[in-house]
Structures are given as C-alpha cells and as structure tokens.
Automatic annotation (TrEMBL):
Signal sequence annotation: 1-23
Cellular-component GO terms for this entry: membrane
Keyword Glycoprotein listed: yes
Enzyme Commission number, as recorded: 2.7.11.1
InterPro entries, A to Z: Leu-rich_rpt, Malectin-like_Carb-bd_dom, Prot_kinase_dom, Protein_kinase_ATP_BS, Ser-Thr/Tyr_kinase_cat_dom
Subcellular location: Membrane
Organism whose genome encodes this protein: Carya illinoinensis
Protein's recorded name: non-specific serine/threonine protein kinase
Length: 673
C-alpha cells in the first residue's frame, strides 16, 4: 500500500505511532524499547513494549550490575538521513516531563560508541554521546503540550547507530513548572539534586508522585559536585516535613541536607546544555534543632551575579517555622556550563549554611517547524492505516496559490518518490532546481510565479514527465531541444525572453489557449472586417467601455443573432464540470475544463488564475467584447461566472479541434487529456 502525504517538511522522517491505551499509572506512559511483554517493575511502574513497531531493530544486551528488565533490551535504527520518531498522545495545554534513556551495552558488537541527536518534534533537544558501554545516559524535558501529540525523534548519527532503551512520559498537575516563557521555550533538565543522601540511589516514584528523579549528591561521576568545602557534613531527620503540595520536592528529599560546619558550602558541576538562560531553584527546610541563642543566616555567592548575593536566607524565618519548606529561585538566570557556587554564612550567624535540594533547567527555544507537518502528523496518527507502509514517501506536493516567497528549495529534489509538484500561483523567485533525481515526476506546475534563469536541461532526463507548466514567469534563454521533442504537455508562454530553438520535427503540443479560447485571436480581425463592410461605422469610446462586466442579459450591438451572455453561479459551473473533473486545456489565462449542463448542452469553462492581474484584465475585456460580438465562424460565448476571486468564461464546446489545428494541421502527437 502506497502512503501518500502532502509536503510535511523538507526533512524526511518516519513516525512510530505508539498505542498507549494499555493500563498505566494515571498520566504515566513507560515504554520498554525493544521489549516483548508488559511487566511491572520494583517501583510499581507498569512498562509496555514497543514490539508492534515495524521500524528499527531490537537487540538484547547484558551489562554488569544492571538487572532492571527495561534495560535488557533496546531498539536501534539505521544511521541514515531520516528522523525516527516516537509519537505519543498528550492532552493539549497540560505540562509533562518526557524522559529518554540510553544504555549502549555494545549491542552491535562493534564497540563503537554512538553519537546522535534527539529532538522533540522539530526542536533540537540534545546530542547523545556515549562514552561508556555500561553507563545510562538520561535526558529529561519539561514542556507545555500545544497539540494532541508529541514526537521524540532520533537522527543524525555521526558514529554508530541511533538507539533508545526507554521512553517515559509523566503528566504534571496544575501550575507546576509554569513559566512566563513556556509558549516559546521548553525546560531541559540539567540538574535535580538531593543533598545529604545516605546512598547513591535516586529518589523517585513512589516517593515522588510525578516520578521526577532526584539524584544523590554521593553519586560518583565526572565533574559532578566536586570542590566540596571542608567541614561539609550530612544531616537528616525522621520528622515529617511540610512541603506544601506535591508540586514541590518529596518529603524524603527534604528530610536530608548538607551543612557547612566551617561556614561555607561550595560545589562545582557541569550543566548539560549551558551556557544560556535557565530556571534555578533551591529548596531549604530547617531540620536541625537550634538553640535559643543559635541562628542560621547565609547568602548565595554566584560568580558574575553580585545582586544575588544581597539576599539573606534565614530558613526558619522565611519558612515560618521548623520542618517547613522554603523555596527561593530565579526563573530567568544566565548560567555557565561550569557552575561554581557557594553558600556563606553571614557575620551575625552562629550556624553554617544548610542545603536540602536544588533544580536547574535550561530554556530550550522551540522550533515550530512546519505547521503542515504538525497537521499531517496528527492526521496520520488519527488514520491508523497511514503507517502501514514500511517505507512511506511523499508523492505529491500541493501548494498552489499559497503566497509562497523566496526560491524553490533544493531540498525538494531529494524527494525521490515525488510524482506531482504543484507550486503555481505563488511569488517564487530564482532558478528552477535540478529535479533529475526525482525520476517518478510526472506533473510539474510552476506557472504564474517570478522564476528566472533558463529551463534546466535535466528536465529532459525525467522519464515519466507528462506535464510541464512554466508560463507567465521571467524565464530566459533557449528551450532545450529535448523538451521540444518530448511527448509532453508543455506551456512556456508569457516568458518573453524564453526562445524556442531552430530545431525541426517537434512533436510537442504547445498550449496557447483552450480550443474555445483560441477564437479570441480572430476577434480583432473580424471586428475590423465588420467595421469596413459597414463603411467604417464609428462607436464612441463611451459605448465601447460601458458595462465592464455584463449584468443580466447583454444583447450584441451587431447584426449577429442576439444570443445573451448569461451570468452563471459557481454552483452551476461546479455541477456542470463535476467539480472540474476533466481538464481539456491550459493557457496563460488559466485552465479549461469540459462540462455538461442539465439540459445536455456541452460547455467549455475557462477558469482565470486567481492571482493573475493580467488574467483579470483579460477577463473583463473578454466578457465585455464577447457579449457584444457574434459570428457564425466564432465559437459561441455563453456567459461568465464571477464570485469573489472566482472568474470564469463559459463557451460552447467544440468537437472539431482547435483553430491552430485547422490552420496548420494536427500535430503528430496530441497529448491534451
């Protein structure tokens, strides 16, 4: 089954639609990539395999000291130019955390550490650089859903193959992680730290109802919480902590802390994704029992941010009591990649600073990509049959009269399955690119633009090309002789600097107008003859210009039969042509369609190109002139239709061919359908 798309974007991507209808924790989705069965892990999280996907390949891995089932398998994809996207359903205007993890485990037996990109839709998220086969790389992003689905995509492998171990989605409630910039930016998680932890194990679900992962400060990894000040010690309590709501760090995180007994807490760590602007919060709760003569006051010292150091933290006072959360933070703070920070006690404080937890996120600017891509992606996810083709291709681009500007992107030439290209009626400039790689191309419509340069000789090499419309541009040079000898419907009129060569024996049908429209070419001659035969009878300029468009019934001023020019409705025309089903010709003015009225009368309908100023002038002139002039040797003009931007001329349909055929004979190959 061939999957047909309109133009989604200039990058070719494959969507992997995941069925998330299976039972999950409310607002939770957990995919075991490469897995084969549903299971519940030791935390109570329910995992679903992506086994029904037909893209990518699965692999089993074994890593020392890793026993979690979701890390026993993975799914990997070809290292090609495509984007491979997992698409998940979400609730619009709701905030989520999406988490992707990557455990290499030498799945390909090559010991070549992969490097590739991950993105959320069109927005680049992070570059995954594997540096150890047994280390799990984790990426988390917080976002406000703006559509019913999101896509997590892997692409651009520079070494190895893109792969993924798990993909998780966690729904937030209320205003958690609200920022005034969320319409334009995502929050990429750089650090979420539990200070004073007694083990290296993180705190997450079920202690955190949103399954945020709070990493232990005792975790050993490069450039993570180094340069620790002397006198730093861990403290903890079993007392309950008032954290106000589920939005804040869980109680288990707030029951531990570090204290700077020598008056300072200092740390240095690398922030993934920085330098840049970020969102940073610290979390404090007084979990030590201070004497009546003891106090804890301190400041945050951040190099390059002197204003921050002015604020004094007094946890018990700020939180209005012991064992209560105080959460100062900054929603728009410039931070470096290597962050060094210090908490120092004030001169009137008897106790050193205390820190329970910290979160730092980087603002990641959204890339909207193509709106069409979002719309079509949603349509494909809605109609399940659309992803049945393991190698879907874009076969038709239909962007006529969309006010497109700029040049025709060369990326279009990479769509090897393209059959029809409709870019007519826009404001495109520049040259026509080389489409020689699009060997399936049958129809090219580039008319009514502002294209310049010559006609590429590469068009000759397109074996299936049947229609080429380039009229009414600003093309120049000589038409390649191979195009003139090709069995092709070809219209290049309206390009005054585009010349036909001296080659003979052309078998091409050059469409100057429709069979009915050609009669207009004789109007001037016949009018002149009529004038001369009547002794050069004069009509005033006022008579010639009155009634620019006929209203009701206009009667000819000649002695010809008084056939009226009827004003047809668009519905009448649409019914007669069966919604413009059969095209019988084309010209600079527009396209001509065959029709049949309810009374059996056959008609030819010439449709004005909606953005052609020259065509609109011709329309007014032709209606005015044809409604007044009749002759037995002229095709009968029946009327017109003008509704909004729709302008059409209605003629009697002639079965005996075009005027050109009667004057010069029928061409050897006639290909108008």
């Amino acid at each position: 089954m061939e999957t047909r798309f309109l133009l989604l974007s200039l990058s070719f991507f494959i969507l992997l639609f995941l069925d998330v209808s299976s039972a999950q924790m409310p607002g939770f989705v957990s995919f075991d990539c490469g897995g084969q069965e549903n299971f519940t892990d030791g935390l109570g999280l329910q995992w679903t395999p992506d086994s029904h996907l037909i893209y990518g390949e699965t692999a089993d891995i074994s890593v020392a000291n890793e026993t979690r089932k979701q890390y026993m398998t993975l799914r990997h994809f070809p290292a090609d130019s495509r984007k491979y996207c997992y698409t998940l359903k979400v609730i619009s205007r709701t905030r989520y955390l999406v988490r992707a993890t990557f455990l290499y485990g030498n799945f390909d037996s090559n010991n070549v550490y992969p490097k590739f990109d991950i993105s959320l839709g069109a927005t680049p998220w992070s570059t995954i650089v594997i540096s150890d086969a047994s280390t799990i790389e984790v990426r988390e992003l917080i976002f406000l859903a703006s559509s019913p689905a999101i896509s997590v995509c892997l692409s651009n492998a520079t070494t190895g193959q893109p792969f993924i171990s798990t993909l998780e989605l966690r729904q937030f409630n209320g205003s958690i992680y609200y920022t005034e910039f969320e319409e334009q930016y995502y929050l990429s998680v750089s650090a979420r730290i539990n200070f004073g932890a007694d083990t290296e194990a993180p705190v997450r679900y079920p202690d955190d109802p949103f399954d945020r992962i709070w990493e232990s400060d005792t975790l050993k990894k490069a450039n993570y919480l180094v340069d620790v000040a002397a006198g730093t010690k861990k403290v903890s309590t079993k007392m309950p902590i008032d954290v106000n709501s589920d939005d804040n760090p869980p109680e288990k995180v707030m029951q531990t802390a570090v204290v700077g007994t020598n008056g300072s807490l200092t740390y240095r760590l690398n922030l993934d994704g920085f330098p840049g602007f970020g969102w940073a919060y610290c979390y404090f709760a007084e979990i030590e029992d201070l004497g009546s003569d003891e106090s804890r006051k301190f400041r945050l010292i951040l190099p390059g941010n002197t204003d921050i150091s002015k604020a004094v933290v007094n946890i018990e006072e700020n939180a209005h009591g012991k064992y209560r959360l105080y959460e100062p933070g900054y929603t728009n703070l410039s931070l470096p990649f290597v962050l060094s920070f210090r908490f120092g006690k004030t001169s009137d404080s008897s106790m050193g600073p205390l820190l329970n937890a910290m979160e730092i996120n980087k603002y990641l600017e959204k890339n909207g990509g193509s709106l069409d891509g979002t719309v079509i992606g949603n349509m494909v996810s809605y109609y399940s049959s659309c992803d049945s083709d393991p190698q879907p291709k874009i076969t038709k681009i239909s962007l006529s009269r969309k006010n497109l500007t700029g040049s025709i992107s060369s990326d279009l030439t990479k769509l090897t399955g393209l059959v029809e290209l409709w870019l007519d009626g826009n404001l495109l400039t520049g040259p026509i690119p080389d489409f020689s790689g699009c060997t399936d191309l049958k129809i090219i419509h580039l008319e009514n633009n502002q294209l310049t340069g010559g006609l590429p000789s590469s068009l000759i090499s397109l074996p299936n090309l049947r229609e080429l419309y380039v009229q009414d541009n600003m093309l120049s040079g000589t038409i390649p002789s191979g195009l003139l000898n090709k069995d092709l419907v070809f219209n290049y009129t309206g390009n005054i600097n585009l010349q036909k060569g001296n080659k003979k024996g052309s078998h091409i049908t050059i469409i100057i107008g429709s069979s009915v429209g050609a009669a207009v070419l004789l109007i001037g001659t016949i009018v002149s003859c009529l004038f001369m035969s009547k002794g050069k009878k004069k009509y005033s300029e006022r008579d010639q210009l009155e009634h620019a468009l006929p209203v009701g019934r206009l009667v000819s001023k000649t002695d010809a039969p008084t056939e009226a020019a009827q004003c047809f409705t668009f519905c009448e025309i649409e019914d007669a042509t069966r919604k413009f089903e059969k095209k019988i010709g084309s010209g600079g003015f527009g396209v001509v369609f065959y029709g049949k009225m309810k009374d059996g009368k056959e008609i030819a309908v010439k449709v004005l190109s909606s953005n052609s100023y020259q065509g609109k002038r011709e329309f007014s002139n032709e209606v005015t002139l044809l409604s007044r002039i009749h002759h037995r040797n002229l095709v009968q003009f029946l009327g017109y239709c003008q509704e909004g931007d729709r302008c059409m001329l209605v003629y009697e349909f002639m079965h005996n061919g075009t005027l050109k055929e009667h004057l010069y004979g029928k061409p050897a190959c006639f290909s108008i359908k």
